[in-house]
Design goal:
The chain is α/β, with parallel strands linked by helices. It has a single domain, classed as Ribonuclease Z/Hydroxyacylglutathione hydrolase-like (Metallo-beta-lactamase, Chain A, 4-Layer Sandwich), CATH 3.60.15.10. It contains 7 helices and 14 strands. The protein has a 7-stranded mixed β-sheet with strand order 6-5-4-3-2-1-14. β9 and β10 form a beta hairpin. α6 packs parallel to α7. The longest helix is centred in the middle third of the chain and has 11 residues.
């Protein structure tokens, strides 16, 4: 199965990266809807799509306003947006208020409760993360593979979410700061390099790909990749349009 990282930074786009949006083309699933959403229509391969939002901060949802162009690139019979009820209400009240964006795109709002069955026979579960605004992480399971998507959180090997991602084949985990920014990470509800690597090690995942990189950094290695690999060797830095098989 393939996942494409359409956007791999947070807060705001820069000249190298857009804000979070991940797509699994063959099963019609998208994770978050940041500024990279405009790219999605090139990759979708299903007549329906389910978009799962971790939370309602603008860098994760503003791409919903781009859906009109997405459906021009890839006509869709049905679009469902899954999120906590309070976040769906915030989108309706604020992002799609008449003064900001008067025409709501053609999607159905689906409040997240328990497990969600995916169109291709997989299932998605969610769990809380430590960040302002009630953030969720996601785990996706199929009979022969699994992955987790964890963004906007402090990274603690003893955190409750670590058991929820245990043993996944692929972990996409935010790494906003290198270790020099560890104090800032704790203050702002984000993650730093060594802590993320220790989470991957503790969870026993197969592969770690670092995302939600600080947009102030545009160099090839903004977070100290070798530091992470010294703890968890199978670590990579995610890049926009990277395609991952798992």
């Amino acid at each position: 199965m393939k996942i494409i990282l359409l956007g791999t930074t947070g807060y705001h786009p820069n000249d190298r990266r857009h804000t979070p949006c991940m797509v699994l083309p063959t099963c019609g699933v998208m994770l978050d809807a940041g500024t990279a959403m405009y790219r999605a229509g090139r990759y979708l391969q299903t007549p329906e799509v389910d978009i799962f939002l971790t939370h309602a901060h603008l860098d994760h949802v503003v791409g919903l306003t781009y859906l009109f162009d997405v459906v021009r690139d890839c006509p869709l019979d049905r679009i469902r947006v899954h999120a906590l009820a309070e976040h769906l209400a915030a989108l309706d009240e604020h992002l799609f208020s008449p003064a900001l964006f008067p025409k709501k795109p053609p999607y159905e709002s689906c409040p997240l409760g328990g497990e969600v069955a995916l169109a291709d026979g997989g299932r998605l579960t969610h769990f809380p993360l430590a960040h302002q605004g009630r953030v969720l992480g996601f785990r996706l399971d199929w009979p022969d593979r699994s992955m987790a998507y964890v963004t906007d959180t402090t990274a603690e090997p003893e955190a409750d979410y670590v058991r929820r991602i245990a043993g996944v084949d692929l972990l996409l985990h935010e790494c906003y700061y290198g270790d020099e920014g560890a104090a800032w990470a704790q203050q702002t509800g984000h993650s730093s390099t060594s802590q993320v690597a220790r989470v991957a090690e503790k969870a026993g995942v197969g592969r770690l790909v670092l995302i939600h990189i600080n947009p102030r950094s545009v160099e090839n290695d903004p977070i100290g990749l070798e530091t992470a690999r010294a703890i968890f060797p199978d670590t990579e830095i995610g890049e926009d349009l990277m395609e991952l098989e798992f």
